[in-house]
Amino acid sequence: MSNHIHYSALNLVPIREGSNEKEAIAQMTALAQHLETLNYGRYWIAEHHNAPNLVSSATALLIQHCLSQTRHLRIGSGGIMLPNHAPLIVAEQFGTLNVLYGDRVDLGLGRAPGTDMATASALRRDQHDGVYQFPEEVQQLLQYFGSETNQGYVKAIPAVNKQVPLYILGSSTDSAHVAARQGLPYVFAGHFAPQQMKEALAIYRELFEPSQYLSEPYIIVCLNAILADSNEEANYLATTQAQVFASILNGRMQKMQPPVQDLTQILSPRIIALAEQRIAGSLVGDKTTVKEKIKDFITHYGAINEIMTVSYIYDTTLQHRSYQYFKEVMDEINHS
């Protein structure tokens, strides 16, 4: 394969069954350090609110913590949900992170609140308009991080001239238009919303306008990845991921569960089928299987620049091993 594909990771900071919030944050940090030793390109932390099974509500604080515990890994937001935040505050926070840690900070931006409507209201911003104001607010952020000469009266100190890189996140075709028109990198949430992925990527490629930030399209696709020594073991470990999505579909938000031999013993056939729809494109298997799945993915969806993986694996040692195997697969693909 001719073009080099970068690899990175996303973490929602889940709480595992039998564990607590502090341990979840410690696991998040240990994974950052592990990925740094493996030379992963970047590590992003999600933003979720009112989710008792996740600790990713104060995203900027978690990013700062991971930056302080690593040396060169890029760390950022996957993403900051812009309807929840005044762009000025986001710029101030990420400008400050840039001052503290230099050019290691990424700002991925989402246009949805990332929570239910009652919680969105409690987050204080007018969420009904926030989604529609997304393109203007992205433009505002670009200005805040831009050069001194382009600033208005209100400046985001110390963000001015820091040029913190922005990435537009999407799980439907809407954000593809924004990313393309603004000439910004585009990140598609294939890990939970694969349905519109092909169409969204095509729109982004077709409508992309070169900008001062990017001369040609840059596509990151986020996928679930569970690698093990055999397909059988990977499929067993993947029952944790199926339970995560079943819990979302059931509205139960339970902690991350250990794997089980037989999902039909704990979940209805309907929920299993719905969960499998959500995770249809997951990279599950041994290294040979996953390598073929990645090649098939590119044949179907076209060239991409980066695969960002989410690994819902209950045992953290096996999760770390999965990320190591994924790196080995990507290195093989890139050198073939």
TrEMBL record:
Statement: the UniProt record of this protein carries the keyword Transit peptide: no
Keywords: Oxidoreductase
Signal peptide feature range: none
Recorded GO CC terms: cytosol
Any matching Pfam family: Bac_luciferase
Homology family: To bacterial alkanal monooxygenase alpha and beta chains.
Classification via NCBIfam families: oxido_grp_1
Name by which UniProt lists this protein: LLM class flavin-dependent oxidoreductase
